[in-house]
From TrEMBL:
This is MBL fold metallo-hydrolase. Pfam families: Lactamase_B. It comes from Flammeovirga pectinis. Keywords: Hydrolase, Metal-binding, Zinc. GO terms for molecular function: hydrolase activity; metal ion binding. Transmembrane segments: none annotated.
Length: 213
């Protein structure tokens, strides 16, 4: 059974997730560590729990979700996996940082592309890849059927949804995909979002003001 630990980083308050199982193999999902203290916090958690990072994975490649990509590639010596529809978004990182007045952004390069379906494996665990565009053009969600856990990026939040006014966003596409993909998951599925507290599919279907189940 997987375990999930949340680290909240940067002025954007982005949730970085360390995910591992009993084998101690781990993946880092959306490393948003921005400064040296945040990088140290991430490494300290990995070392304290004696985890072996085997992959870095992005749900999508907006600026706040990729701050720590290069640091993690260099520190842990592992490959970076990004959605195939997010290559252009990753390449826009430096320009986005300049737009927001954020200094010191370090560009990362992907090692592998994730298809819009399939699996991510580590240790004894398998995450199903779900294609849920709308917030960004190639956005993926990673779902563990056994644990009923979804690493949701910026698709669905507690009482809210991802913004769609950024490049590549489309409001109706996001709403449609929340209904047709996210809301098809079991109601007890815990959604770990890119920002804010976790929620469940059942709670959002009942009460999300933007898209009801």
């Amino acid at each position: 059974m997987i375990k999930v630990h949340t680290l909240t980083f940067s002025p954007f308050q982005e949730n970085t997730y360390v995910v591992w199982d009993d084998t101690k193999e781990a993946i880092i999902v959306d490393p948003g560590c921005y400064d040296a203290s945040e990088e140290k916090e991430l490494v300290s958690f990995i070392e304290t729990n004696e985890l072996k990072v085997v992959k870095i994975v992005n749900t999508h490649c907006h600026l706040d979700h990729v701050f720590g990509n290069k640091f993690c590639q260099d520190t842990f010596g592992v490959k970076l996996y990004i959605p195939k529809g997010e290559v252009e978004m990753l390449a826009m990182g430096s320009a986005s940082a300049a737009k927001y007045g954020i200094p010191g952004f370090i560009t990362s390069r992907h090692d592998e592309l994730l298809e819009n379906s399939g699996e991510i494996t580590f240790g004894e665990s398998t995450l199903e890849i779900l294609y849920v565009p709308g917030h960004s053009p190639g956005h993926l969600v990673f779902f563990d059927k056994e644990a009923k856990v979804a690493l949701g990026g910026d698709v669905l939040f507690k009482g809210s949804i991802g913004r769609t006014d950024l490049p590549g966003g489309d409001h109706q596409t996001l709403l449609d995909n929340i209904k047709s993909v996210m809301y098809k998951l079991p109601s007890e599925t815990v959604v770990y979002p890119g920002h804010g507290p976790f929620t469940t599919i059942g709670d959002e279907k009942r009460s999300n003001p933007f898209v009801k189940g």
